Amino acid sequence: DAGVTQSPTHLIKTRGQHVTLRCSPISGHKSVSWYQQVLGQGPQFIFQYYEKEERGRGNFPDRFSARQFPNYSSELNVNALLLGDSALYLCASSLLQGSDYGYTFGSGTRLTVV
Amino acid sequence: KNQVEQSPQSLIILEGKNCTLQCNYTVSPFSNLRWYKQDTGRGPVSLTIMTFSENTKSNGRYTATLDADTKQSSLHITASQLSDSASYICVVNSGGGADGLTFGKGTHLIIQP
Fold first, then answer.
1. Long-range CB pairs of B5-8, under 8 A, 24+ apart, other chains included
2. Which of A41, A45, A57 minimises the CB distance to B101?
3. Of the partner residues B36, B46, B97, the one whose CB lies closest to the CB of residue A55
4. What is the pLDDT of residues A75-95, one digit of tens each?
5. pLDDT tens, B38-63?
6. How far is the alpha carbon of A106 from chain B, nearest alpha carbon, in Å?
7. Nearest CA in chain A to B51
8. What is the pLDDT of residues B11-22, one digit of tens each?
């Protein structure tokens, strides 16, 4: 069984550009969550999607957006990139929206903004 | 505000030695607590999960404890191996959706030969 897959694994962008990160959840999982992890810190919650609807949003600016597709895969979009957006972006999949079923993380996308 | 504090921030031990990592939390309500292992540049991998009624959970050489009264948890690693070098993150769940997770900053563990 494939785990949570994220693409690309690494990405370098310049300030002001736009980026799209992709995540495929574990087969059968209907919820995808996105996190930003700055070096030396714990992950910070960005979004959760369940059944293609946004079910939670963290304290991030409107430059960050996401969506979930009918096959439950998801995209995270970041516009007008800033140097401070450089981080490891993690996707986590879960069976349902509720947390009792646990979250499985992907390996992340390392975004560097120069 | 929900918070998870971990100590020490970093730790260096010799291969074969034991170590204990600490996690103190102020999260309410409480659903469960997980310890994750995160290799550099990789996603976190779950080691253990404990609910309110559990006070000990083992996974191989990893043993986690939970004291729900004092809101403290520990992760004990026995007979450390070089592959144990990683960050260990304590995550407390207050239930609901993914926004109910509160992450610690992690303990960076280095195992030296």
1. B5/B104, B6/B88, B6/B89, B6/B90, B6/B104, B6/B105, B6/B106, B6/B107, B7/B107, B8/B107
2. A45
3. B97
4. 999 999 999 999 999 999 988
5. 998 899 999 999 998 899 999 999 99
6. 5
7. A100
8. 999 999 999 999
